[in-house]
Design a protein that fits this description.
single chain; about 70 residues; alpha+beta; two-stranded parallel sheet; 2 strands
């Protein structure tokens, strides 16, 4: 199902939507990333409680090699 299909239904029924965002190793190492993410959430009116950050597998592989 595409977001254009389920978002209007969720808005009409008052249901909350959680969006998962994949975070790369590069983003996690970027000290400005949290601030950039906060700015984007504020710009688009998204509550932080409605997102879930997911660490990509490549980060786990990189960390296990070190």
């Amino acid at each position: 199902m595409l977001p254009a299909e389920f978002i209007p239904v969720a808005e009409e029924t008052g249901r909350n939507i959680t969006v998962s965002i994949n975070i790369s190793a590069k983003q996690l190492r970027d000290l400005t990333f949290p601030f950039k993410l906060k700015q984007l959430l504020e710009k688009h009116g998204v509550e932080s409680s409605s997102i879930k950050l997911e660490i990509t597998e490549s980060l786990l592989i990189l960390e296990s090699d070190n």
